[in-house]
Design brief:
Chains A, B: It catalyses: N(2)-formyl-N(1)-(5-phospho-beta-D-ribosyl)glycinamide + L-glutamine + ATP + H2O = 2-formamido-N(1)-(5-O-phospho-beta-D-ribosyl)acetamidine + L-glutamate + ADP + phosphate + H(+). The structure is a homodimer. By secondary structure, chain A is α+β, with helices and mostly antiparallel strands. In chain A, 34% of the residues lie in helices and 38% in strands.
Chain lengths: 82, 82
């Protein structure tokens, strides 16, 4: 079993209304000094088997086809070597 | 300016219907060998100033009060030292 974490974030320049809403909510809560917030998604994935190269290929296919919209989002895959 | 990343994930045992939907969509796409998927949230935050201890306190307050539901979610804060 290979564990991996995929992080999907909006590309620079893409408007992030959720992040803006969080910034304004923080202001209302009295939490100051926060410059900017941008929200993304994280996926913790377990891949069967022990083939790290195959797992990387599967994870990339998952991101390209399902998890990330590569027009407006970047993704990063981290394979956990513990 | 201090950059930090907050990762909010569901606690073990909490049902994750979004993750289950992704697992079934992967099957439909013909991507096999994926054992489990669990979805979480990531927040990229910029904190004003250079006070790392103060930034850590601000980030913890953000998580406790707004970003994470600590009944069902865990959060991790990583301060970027680049």
């Amino acid at each position: 079993m290979i564990k991996a974490r995929i992080i999907v974030t909006l590309k620079t320049g893409v408007l992030d209304p959720q992040g803006k809403a969080i910034e304004s909510a923080l202001g209302n809560l009295g939490i100051d000094g926060v410059g900017s917030v941008r929200q993304g998604k994280v996926f913790d994935v377990e891949i069967e088997g022990e083939d790290a190269a195959g797992a990387k290929a599967t994870l990339d296919a998952m991101c390209e086809q399902l998890l990330a919209n590569t027009v407006i989002e970047n993704y990063a895959v981290e394979i956990d070597n513990r």
